[in-house]
Amino acid sequence: AQKITQTQPGMFVQEKEAVTLDCTYDTSDQSYGLFWYKQPSSGEMIFLIYQGSYDEQNATEGRYSLNFQKARKSANLVISASQLGDSAMYFCAMREKVNDMRFGAGTRLTVKP
Amino acid sequence: DAGITQSPRYKITETGRQVTLMCHQTWSHSYMFWYRQDLGHGLRLIYYSAAADITDKGEVPDGYVVSRSKTENFPLTLESATRSQTSVYFCASIAGRTSSDSYNEQFFGPGTRLTVL
To answer: What residues of chain B lie within 8 A of the CB of A54, using their CB?
Structure first.
């Protein structure tokens, strides 16, 4: 069964605007971690942001914030003030066990000048 | 240089051949992982290792073999390559024991693009 769902295969955003990338997850565990990674065209996986299941505050890292709604099992990534360099694939991931990180299918974000 | 390196970065092989993808990390991280990335699937775990000489299957292990005789190396072998194994392969590592809800960044190598003809 799909544990991580990213419903937006592709997204467009105007430069300098904010964009939200959706992620929902499925787990019956109380303890888990949620991650977002960026994959530019060069191919490497770049860690962006982390949210623990017990964290009460939404995680923020610079222009990235994670909108964590535990009851809805959603962990949307918000990128503020988009830049051309933000154009990339974005993956949501969940770790229930240390040896098991599951990834969504990804969202391709294109920032328009 | 410190970090995770993978070799080769690109490989073309033929159906039925044996191929080994190498992964080396310089941090002495306990956990190491192999993922494959295919369109529409994100990354899927092939095998992982909790320490030297300890390996276990992930989500898609069929057709692959791993070993870990040294902490820093985690080679992945395709014993008889098939076209369905054409993919991008990522090696990753985590520093040590962690609970699932603890922040513990998973570091990725640069990837190996494998094409099986």
So the answer is: 101
